[in-house]
Design brief:
By secondary structure, the protein is mostly helical. It is 70% helix and 0% strand. It has ten helices and no strands. The radius of gyration is 19 Å and the shape is elongated.
Length: 200
């Protein structure tokens, strides 16, 4: 068994159907090792199946990557619903909750940043099926922030949302390059300072 596959061999023991095992195994490998570094043989082995079965469910590795990212995007959508449920009718509290959740993720040493941003860097082809998934996801995240800033009664909500969005994207890179004790550790404080600058 390859070293990459051996680390996720638990997927092969799952009672899940092959398609779900393939998605679970590929998601783990893609995130930890990188999309380009992982071949379909390693994915199939880690999922306890074979290449023929993998291609029966996904026409190509590119399509598998796109579905992996769609799953992550859907999970992120649930996060916003949970945030609203935790702070009903209080968009400012939701905005603070977003800052806290993002900082927690940034400082988690087991994380490798945003999987969709990582994929955007790894996949330069403009016609890659994952490109539209990534673009749609990022735009939806921006729109969510704009809505929260607007509902919070903050001035120039679109500008503030873009400032927060770019702060997060930069913090993700910083956390990976210089570690959790670098500038990313001040994410909440910097975000709150940006918000304070838009209070009317």
């Amino acid at each position: 068994m390859t070293s990459a596959a051996s680390t996720v061999s638990s997927h092969a023991n799952s009672q899940n159907p092959p398609r779900e095992r393939i998605l679970a195994a590929s998601g783990d490998l893609f995130y930890r090792l990188g999309i380009r570094a992982v071949g379909v043989e390693a994915i199939a082995e880690a999922a306890g199946t074979n290449k023929m079965t993998l291609y029966r469910h996904f026409s190509s590795k590119d399509e598998l990557v796109a579905e992996y990212l769609r799953r992550l995007a859907a999970k992120a959508g649930k996060f916003w619903d949970e945030l609203a449920a935790a702070h009903p009718d209080d968009p400012r509290a939701q905005l603070r909750g977003w800052l806290q959740a993002m900082e927690t993720h940034l400082l988690d040493t087991d994380q490798r940043g945003c999987a969709l941003a990582n994929a955007a860097i790894e996949l330069p082809e403009k016609d890659h099926p994952a490109k539209c998934v990534i673009e749609q996801f990022k735009m939806e995240q921006r729109e969510r922030l704009i809505a929260l800033c607007r509902e919070s009664g903050l001035a120039e909500p679109e500008m503030l949302a873009d400032e927060l969005f770019l702060l997060l994207e930069g913090a993700r890179v910083s956390a990976q390059s210089v570690g959790a004790n670098g500038p990313a550790s001040r994410f909440v404080r910097m975000g709150e300072a940006l918000i304070a600058g838009h209070v009317t």
